[in-house]
């Protein structure tokens, strides 16, 4: 096969919907912001979260109770329930908040490119 078989119109990352597409970036950041927002709420309300979980009868009850506590969907409640206990330390809480702030800033920049 000659080199002409591999000729393309540009780099693969330039495909619409790829990481260089601002609309794609905005969607991906929105998803991450949603998760991080839930995690911040969970670590900020850790006492209430632990009490809610400990008073739940089973997994489904815990998911619903956490969703109600945080005012989020069941899927988002599952994110909060999946937090490892070490993520509740001060340094980890700060890291979650910093990532959230970075994602929000990046999303604004990506939206400006739309």
Highlighted features:
114 residues, mainly alpha, Topoisomerase, domain 3
Task: Report on the architecture of this protein.
This protein has 114 residues and is mostly helical. The protein has a single domain, classed as Topoisomerase, domain 3. It is 66% helix and 0% strand. The chain is built from five helices and no strands. Helix 1 crosses helix 4 and helix 2 (46-54) packs antiparallel against helix 3. The protein starts with 21 loop residues before the first helix and ends with a helix.
The CATH homologous superfamily is termed Topoisomerase, domain 3
CATH class annotation: Mainly Alpha
The SSE order reads: HHHHH
If you average the pLDDT, what whole number results?
89
The major β-sheet equals: none
Number of helical segments with 4 or more residues:
5
Entry summary:
The chain has helices at residues 22-44, 46-54, 59-70, 74-81, 90-112. It is mainly alpha-helical.
């Amino acid at each position: 096969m000659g080199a002409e078989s591999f000729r393309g119109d540009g780099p693969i990352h330039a495909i619409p919907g790829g990481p260089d597409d601002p609309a794609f970036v905005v969607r991906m950041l929105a998803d991450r912001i949603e998760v991080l927002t839930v995690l911040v709420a969970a670590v900020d309300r850790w006492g209430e979260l632990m009490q809610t979980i400990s008073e739940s009868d089973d997994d489904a009850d815990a998911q619903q109770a956490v969703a109600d506590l945080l005012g989020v969907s069941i899927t988002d409640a599952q994110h909060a329930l999946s937090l490892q206990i070490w993520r509740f330390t001060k340094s980890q809480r700060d890291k979650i908040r910093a990532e959230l702030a970075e994602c929000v800033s990046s999303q604004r920049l990506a939206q400006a490119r739309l």
